Amino acid sequence: MKQILHKLRVLLLIVWGMCIPSLPGYAMTDSEFATWTGVRVGWQLNPRVKFRGTFQTRTQNGLKEMERGRLNVGLNYRVLPLMQLKGYYEIQYRDRGTAGWKVGHRYQAGFIVSGAKRNIKLGWRELLQHTFIGGANEVQLRSRLRVAYEPENWIAYPYFFVETFQPLGDEAFFSLPRVRYRSGGRCPLSRKTALDVYYCRQYDVKRCQNILGLNWEIKL
């Protein structure tokens, strides 16, 4: 257990160190509140393959306006006991400011490595994300480190993760235009449903957000 906790501290320090160089470029004073609410459906097709679908809506400008609605569907394929491959397609209807509302398409592919030691679960995820919207396209690498504490008989299980967004292509390498810090609690309601309530602090070059989130999870 001591070795696991030591490795976790080292990884978190590394991620924080990665974020520090880009912090001065964030819109630190232009914070606003937003909400993200969604429903996620999971269906274990067989021991290796799992279908996952998510519908989510987001608000902006202090909860006054809708920012987007999105539908994300895809598959997880377990290639090793601790490793899964992931592939998703997403369609968005999104507010692009002065350009108005636009329909966007997003493709994601990557992997997640996860494991558990007693009540502590660790997960490292890498996703290559390609988004097409309003005549523009954007390629990013999303890196996430997650830790959760899940003892038996608790009403809710706390977790925390750090996620960074790295542009690929013409953008400057390792600029990290967006970083998310998210903490929350997952509360099982029944054998097939759970509620995930969280707070996310998102640092962005254009704006920073304090996000209150709610996800309803369903297993088929």
Give a description of the structure.
The chain has 220 residues and is mostly beta strands. It has one helix spanning 2-19; strands at residues 31-44, 49-60, 65-80, 83-95, 101-117, 120-133, 136-149, 157-167, 178-188, 193-204, 208-219. The longest helix has 18 residues, at 2-19. The relative contact order is 0.18.
Question: What's a quick, concise take on this entry?
Answer:
The chain has 220 residues and is mainly beta. The chain has one helix at 2-19; strands spanning 31-44, 49-60, 65-80, 83-95, 101-117, 120-133, 136-149, 157-167, 178-188, 193-204, 208-219. It has an eleven-stranded mixed beta barrel.
Radius of gyration: 18 Å
Strands of the widest sheet, in order across it, are: 1-2-3-4-5-6-7-8-9-10-11
Q: Quick one: biggest sheet?
A: 11 strands, mixed, barrel
Number of helical elements? 1
How many angstroms does the end-to-end distance come to?
A: 34 Å
In percent, how helical is the residue content?
Answer: under 10%
The H/E string reads HEEEEEEEEEEE
The poorly predicted ranges are 4-24
- Tell me, rounded to a whole number, the average pLDDT: 85
Q: How is the secondary structure organized here?
A:
Elements: H1 2-19, E1 31-44, E2 49-60, E3 65-80, E4 83-95, E5 101-117, E6 120-133, E7 136-149, E8 157-167, E9 178-188, E10 193-204, E11 208-219
